[in-house]
Amino acid sequence: MPKSNIHPKWYPEAEVYCEGKLIFKIGSTKDKLNVDVWSGNHPFFTDSQRIIDTEGRVERFIKKYKIQNNNSDT
Q: I need a surface site. Which of 11, 23, 34, 44 has the fewest CB within 10 A?
């Protein structure tokens, strides 16, 4: 006999939000999900060259690997 009450609660209509807007609903163990990137705003799917930099990740990467900026524009 399987144990009871060992699985998390399932929300079949969990809401997924991106940038404060409801994107879609999906089954999840959380009732509300917040995402930074989804296919509707990802550069690969939207053919845009916008760089999504969340919390300075690009700057941390550059600093971590000591990458020099060789652009003459700066």
A: 44
Residues forming beta bridges with residue 21, ordered by sequence position: 18
| pTM greater than 0.70 | no
* Domain count within the chain: 1
Q: Is 1 exposed, middle or buried (0-12, 13-18, 19+ CB in 10 A)?
A: exposed
Cα–Cα distance for residue pair 9/6, rounded to 1 Å: 9
Q: Is pLDDT of 21 > 80? A: yes
- Strand, helix or coil for residue 63: helix
Q: What is the mean pLDDT of residues 35-60?
A: 72
Domain that holds residue 41: 11-64
